Amino acid sequence: MDDVKRTLDTIETRSESRPMLHGELGRHRLAKEKWVPSEGPQSQAYDSEADMLLYGGEPGGGKSQLILGLAFNKHRRSLIMRRHYGELERLIEDAVAIHGSRHGFSRDPHPRLRIAPGSTVYFRAAQHVGDEHGTMGQGRDLLGIDEATHFAESQVRFLMGWVRSEIPGQRCRTVLATNPPLTAEGLWVNAMFAPWLDPNFPRPARPRELRWVITDEEGKDLWVDGADDTRVIRGKPV
Fold first, then answer.
1. Where are the beta strands (DSSP E) in 11-56?
2. For the segment 130-163, what is each residue's pLDDT rounded down to a tens digit?
3. 50 lies in which domain range?
4. Domain count of the fold of the chain
5. What pTM did the predictor assign?
6. Bridge-partner residues for 3, per DSSP?
7. Phi, psi of 197 (to 5 degrees)
8. b/e for 34-51, b at 16 or more Cβ within 10 A?
9. What CATH number is attached to the domain comprising 21?
C-alpha cells in the first residue's frame, strides 16, 4: 500500500517546446544544472513536492522536456516510457542534446544514456498490455510516462510499483505528462486525479494543490486528509 502525495499541474498552450531562461533564477540554475525550466507552469511543476504529478495540457507545452530535465538534474536512475518505440526517438535526441554528445548512449539491449557516474536514463516502450512487465525488478527513482493517457491504467500502476531507491536521501517520484485523452482507454486519468479533474468530486482541489492518497492491495485509491491520516486495511494501519 502506498501513501502518496499527488498533484496536478496545468499548462498554458504555447508554441515553444524548449526551456527559456528568465532573470536571476534562470542564471543561477544555469550555473549548476544542465537544463532550466521555463518560468511559469513548467517551473512550478519542476519544483513540485508531489510524489506523483500529472502535467497536462495542449501540445507544445514542454511536457517531455520537463521529464528529461528532472532526469538530468534531480535523479540517478530514470525510466522514461512511451507506448511505442518509434515515439522514443525524439525524446532520445532531446536527451542527447541536453547531454551535449552521444557519449554514454547505447541501444543494446534497450536505449539508455549514461549522463554522469551513477546516473542513467533508460528509455522503454510498452505497446501491448503486459510488455511493461519487462521492467520488473528494475527500480528507478524517476518514472516519467510521456503521453500517459496512451497507456492502460494497469500498465501505469504496474510501472509505479517499481519506483524506489536504495540511495539514502534520493527523492523518488512519478511524472505523468499527457495531452487530454483521445480514447476511452485513457479516461482512467480522470479517476486517478479525481480531485482536480472530476467536477463532481466532493472536495475539489486547485491546480498544484497537494493531496494525499492511499492505494490499497486491490488498486483502489482512498483519499485521506494528510500524511498523518491513516486507514486500517486487513487489520493493518496504512
1. 52-56
2. 999 999 988 999 999 999 999 999 999 999 999 9
3. 2-209
4. 1
5. 0.85
6. 214
7. -110, -25
8. bbbbbeebbbbbbebebb
9. 3.40.50.300
